[in-house]
Design brief:
Chain A contains nine helices and 13 strands. Chain A has helices spanning 13-24, 61-73, 82-88, 91-100, 114-124, 147-159, 219-232, 261-264, 271-281; strands at residues 3-8, 28-33, 53-56, 78-79, 108-111, 128-131, 142-144, 168-172, 179-186, 189-197, 211-214, 236-244, 248-255.
Chain lengths: 285, 60
Amino acid sequence: MSKICIVFDRLRLEEKMLEGQASKMGHDTIVVDAKTSQISTESKKNDIDFGDVVLERCVSYFRGLHFTACLEFLDIPVINRYDVANKCGNKMVTSLLLKKHGVPTPKTYFTFSSEEATNLINKVGFPIVIKPIIGSWGRGILPLRDKDATEAILEMRDISDGSHDRIYYLQEMINRPPRDIRAITVGDQVIAAMYRKSQGDFKTNIALGGDPEICEITKEMEDICIKASKAVGGGILGIDLMEDEKRGLVIHEVNNTVEFKGLARVAKKNIPQEMINFALNQVIK
Amino acid sequence: MKKIIMNCSECDAKINIPDDAAVGEIVSCPECGADFEIAKKNGPNVELKPAESVGEDWGE
């Protein structure tokens, strides 16, 4: 039997489900709060109990990413690996990798000053979607539909001093039904998918109250999700798809620390069980 | 379910802590809305600390 470690910073239903499932399968579990942990360059694998494999589940992206780097320093297998978390945490890097690996993805433009963002929008035209390159739950994502609102948004970015605020990520608006699809990939399998319907506005995130409804996993969906997973390095991922009226499915986001309580309510497969089985396969024998 | 009752450090209202709540979980004051993290829990002895506020990098 192996020992599964769940690293968290805010214990949510997902972490409790994973721990409960691992225990039910007869494995030892340990739940570690990243906020109360200390690791150093002098630390050795056996100094701290992180079990045989870690599921990194921090809600703070940078905390989880840096904690993962420490765990890999200690030669502990972590899901997801640092390089995967690093790629998925940055929407620009993700978009570039998806395109590079032939995954259908919305046309996305990058500029590195607000002046050039304005020039680009003048050239491409409205509507266009602006997204922060770091961040989740739909925060800071806005459809730009006219010049006045765009100027105000770019002006706000200019006076903010966030480390990523000078990087402008602008994406074509996809003509789609008022919903998107969230698929969960575990290794090279799509284990569940759901529609997320908007609540009458632009965004569809479950964190914002989007309503989950099971979605059939088609061959097309499976193929592009697995391709997207491979593009970022694999692991346990939450893949966001849109149904483009002309092109079919396009992938716009790959999430590293997937939330699944909404999908677990409607999925046929036991999501935590699939994740624990995948983690067990990563244990160094 | 048996409940443990704590007082909110902001407004002194009563906060119910479910018996099966675990360290790291967040409880909210029903009156003022302040969020607290369960810092320690040993049977009925519970220690709360103010929960971290949502950061720019929070999410999936």
